Amino acid sequence: MNLPNRLTIARLVLVPLFVLLMSVDHFASYLAAYVTFTVASLTDYYDGKIARRDGLITNFGKLMDPLADKILVTAAFVMLMKIPALTTPGWAIVAILAREFLVTGARSLAAADGSIIAANATGKTKTVIQMVHIYTFLFLAIVAGLVERWLPDYAEVYGSVLSAASMYSIIFVAAFTVYSGIEFARSNWAALNLSTRS
User: Whole domain around residue 75: which residue ranges?
Assistant: First the structure.
C-alpha cells in the first residue's frame, strides 16, 4: 500500500478518536478534538498532493479518499449538534448525510460495473466549505467557553451572535451540499447508467 493510501487509512482511524474526544464536554477535550480534526484534514490534503505528484493515483484512492472525507466530515457535523453554544438544525444535518450516502451509494453502483467515479470540482468545493464550517464553529465554541469563564459580561452577547452565525452557516452548507449532489448526478448520469437499470 502506497503512502497516499496509508494517509487515507490514517484519516479513517482518527475519526473514532475525534468522536470520543467530542463526547467529553470539557474545554481540553474539545481542544484535543480540534487538533485531531486538523491532523485528519491534513492527511486529506497530503494524500492527494503526493498521489498526483508521484503518479500514485489508484482505484483504491479514488474510491476511499472521498469516502474517508465523508466519514470524517459527517462525524464532525453530528458531534457539533451536541454543543449547546451552536445552533445546528437537525434537518440540515439530515440533508447533508442524505447527499453523502446517496453519492457513496452511486459510486458503489458504478464500481460494481467497473467504473470509478472520482470527486469533481463541485464536490471538492463542497468538502472545503464543510470543513471551513467545522473548523470555524468548533473553534468559536471553544472560545465561548473561555469568554464565559474570563469575560462573563460579554458571554450573553457572544453566545447570541455565535448561535445565529452557526445557524445561517449550516443552512448555507446544507444547501451547497445538496447542490453538489445534484451536480454529481448530472455529471455522472452516463457512468451510473441509471436509465437502463431495473
Answer: 3-196
